Amino acid sequence: MAATKTVTVPRSAAVKRRVLNRDKLEADIADVAVRVFAECGYEGTSIATIAEQAGLSKQNLMYYFPTKQALYERVLDGVLDDWLARMATLGDPSQEPRDVLRAYIQAKLRFSREQPWASRVYAMEVISGAQLYGPQIQSRVVPLLRKDIEVFERWIGEGRIGPINATHLLFAIWAMTQSYADFSAQMALVLNRKQLSRKDFDDAEATITHMVLSAVAIADPRASAHV
């Protein structure tokens, strides 16, 4: 009788598989949590509610996230990672300002369209005074904002755009684009529909881009082509 051959999985492969499984489960929990936090706010959200909607017991969820604040911070970490990755285009001074600004606005609106729950959680944290996540915002967003301002100032010095307060221009872009996530329900009501359409976002992109390029005195060929 032939001997049975035992296949031994290398320990490193087994450990890697466990880590990957844990990472996926934590990501799945965060995906559920971001919607619950967006709907109920931090104070109105319970670990039990998130666990129920994630199909887990409360004890099982707390094995991965021992406290509500730990889960909340994980959600906001993911929001900020995604947002900053999409916003990276602004920091390239070698491109044409028109192309960089258009891409920046497009990316910010795409984030509002694709990740409305994430946008709302972040907005609610900031509106409440960023009491739980303020240090992370300050350490990650502020340095990138300063680099972006340096790019604007370089463009102004080179005569590639007109003089403008870059800080407040960026604040205005954030407000205009993020409102399409945070106030989409109000916009849909005004437009007499259930939700914003892809065309609404396309129209928003064209309008906001035209306003921003006009503010920095750059003619937009796309806008003039539609006149």
TrEMBL record:
* Highest rank taxon of the organism: Bacteria
Q: Which residues bind DNA?
A: 46-65
Q: Name one GO molecular function term.
A: transcription cis-regulatory region binding
Per UniProt, the keywords (alphabetical) are: DNA-binding
Q: Which InterPro entries match?
A: Homeodomain-like_sf, HTH-type_TetR-like_transc_reg, HTH_TetR, Tet_transcr_reg_TetR-rel_C_sf, Tscrpt_reg_YcdC_C
Specify whether Secreted is a keyword of the entry: no
What's any GO biological process attached to this entry? negative regulation of DNA-templated transcription
Official protein name in the record: TetR family transcriptional regulator
Which PROSITE patterns does the UniProt record give?
A: HTH_TETR_2
Domain HTH tetR-type: start-end pairs: 23-83
Asked if Metal-binding is a keyword of the record, the answer is no
